[in-house]
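Hello Y.,

Per our agreement to keep a running log of every chain we model this quarter, I'm adding this entry. I've kept the format consistent with earlier entries: sequence first, then predicted structure.
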Amino acid sequence: MGDDTNITGLRVLAADEDEAILRETDRLLAGLGHTVTAHAVDVRQAADHIAREDPDLSVVVVHDDDDHALDLIEEIGEYARGPLIVLLGAHDSDFVRSAAERGIDAFARPQFANEVQGAIQLAMKRHSETTRLTEQVQQLESALERRGTIERAKGILMERHGVDDRQAFELLRQQARRSNRRVIELAHAVADGHSLLPNRAE
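Predicted structure for the entry above:
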């Protein structure tokens, strides 16, 4: 996703204790091409709407009650899959720091529509990058886990059949072909104590 991508059509959860402010937020986001699908005025509503709506983006509006806003940010950050931005009238560095510690992806002043859209694009970009890195880490962990399972199975076969490392792996591959299964499936079975291979090395 490039920096110049104009993101529109997001389904948004808007949160604030003031319904009038939320209606203004609806109009602001609609003008940017997004749709507010739910309002949350407290932490419980935020959690319920996240579970039901699974929004693409969550927006917390801050104007009077900083502690309430931080509670909403913490709750949404805990449960929402999409990114989270904050709209605040002034750049209060103490509040922004506290909000950042709770997981916001960006912030903007609601009186500047272009700034809000920029914050949305930044949040979506950061979230996409974080998701991609998380997936890469999970893939690497999965690959390492598979390798560890195969190594354990090979060690069992080496001891059971008196073969070397290469021959143990070949036994796994031969049995996988014969049984139309993947090597990792057989490795799991062998590591779990199942004897799926011949008693004598071929």
